[in-house]
Amino acid sequence: MTALTTTITEGERDRIYYWDTVTFLVGGCIFKLPRYQFVLGSAYFAEKLEPPMLSDEAEIEGAPITLEGVTAPQFRVFLKLLFPIHSTSLTLSFTKAEWLIILELSTLWQFHEFRKLAKEHLEPQLDDPIEKIILGRAVYVPKWLKDGYETLVARPECISEEESERIGHLTTVRLYILRHDRALDLVASRFYEEIRHLEQLEDAHRTTEERFRVSEEEAEGNLAQPVAETDAEREANPKEQEDGATGVREEVRVEQEPSNGDSSVVDNAAGKVELPPQVESHQPPHTTTPGALESDGHPEARPTIEDRLQTMLSKRALKIELQGQLNDLRARGEDSAAIEHAEEALVELSKDIQQLYEEYRKNFLYWEKAPEDIRLKKGPTPEAVDRVREGILLHLTSDCKAFKFQLTLPPGAGKVSVKLRATIKSFLKDVMKISPTSDLNYRRKLTIEVTEGEFERWALDLAQRNTQ
């Protein structure tokens, strides 16, 4: 029988392939692994496994390092990438679920190269916008977050109750506002703070290569910006460039269109002053402010009164729906966190509606405040319709639950007057879904009213019709 003997030979330890080991306790399972790969690839472990903090004596005494926030099966998945074994292939294959584990742990432990690799493999596999949003928040990927928001805004299907629970009620309200406004390009600005916060967190998890690329892109952007601004200024002000040497600047002149001789607005019990035929306090809805240009150099169209009314009705309908969801949460006895989120969302939406209302008030064409008595005179039919439409819009404040005002139609037996009265009545009945009542002693005087019991259904029906 041959006895086993130990021979101690002197020699220099290999610089690379003489590894110390480290012991981890993960979910009740003990792992003993080479220390080298942890220290080399992770700033987190490089600090945690500093020699003064973990001596050989400590390992001999059997005091493993406990890793929190990870299970033993998850750790094994990560170790498959860190220490590939039982394979002659130069490439490794992981499922989507395994890549998600690798992404989560590489972010937690600051393995930047592994994190980059996991993102590259997962990117083409993420089809669900809700998953993108949740992952983007969890592992600091603002691009996934923004892509998920934009998909929810652009898709025809509504955000379901289950999806709302997963991404948060406040986020759902913000997305619904963008959906109703069809404002896909405003996603980045609406969620600027959240996206910017994730960008700052993501920066700490970039590889050296990624940081270099981002620095180059920022440098190129800074160089290109002054050139782009100069070109835009030259295109917007060609005449100013020509006259720049002499200091002469051509003034923009706005000519008043000839009037048809009719008075602009009529008597109004709310206090609006009647204007003479050739004087208008505001521009008509189709015109643009001189010098107002979009990015492509074309005049920026001001939203019409009809656009404003549709937008306001959509937001009021959204508030009604959200209030209904909040009532359901309370009735079902949901947890306080869900109710609190819904309450916060409702408050924010109310502020948004009021802010929009105040913004519209600055550009109203016919009324300074919600009219109580509109008296129409002879004039263009589209303008008369807009006066009534704007009168309705002025009543739709954030807290409005009903409204009522008087409308007096213009007199006259001619074709123009008869057609105008018929058009106004048709607009109220067919477009605004309001059935006015006539005064028994004065047939041209109508009462326009939406009662408190009718208001919610009226706003919801109109908003739904406008989005179809």
- Beta percentage is 5-15%
User: Largest sheet at a glance?
Assistant: 4 strands, mixed
The helical percent reads: 40-55%
Tell me the distance between the termini.
Answer: 91 Å
Question: How many whole angstroms does the radius of gyration measure?
Answer: 34 Å
- Largest sheet strand order: 4-5-7-6
Estimate the global geometry from the Cα principal axes.
elongated
Instruction: Kindly name the structural category.
Output: alpha/beta
The succession of helices and strands, N to C, reads EEHHHEHHHHHHHHHHHHHEHEHEEH
**Total count of strands:** 7
Low-confidence stretches at least 5 residues in length (pLDDT < 50)? 54-61, 238-301
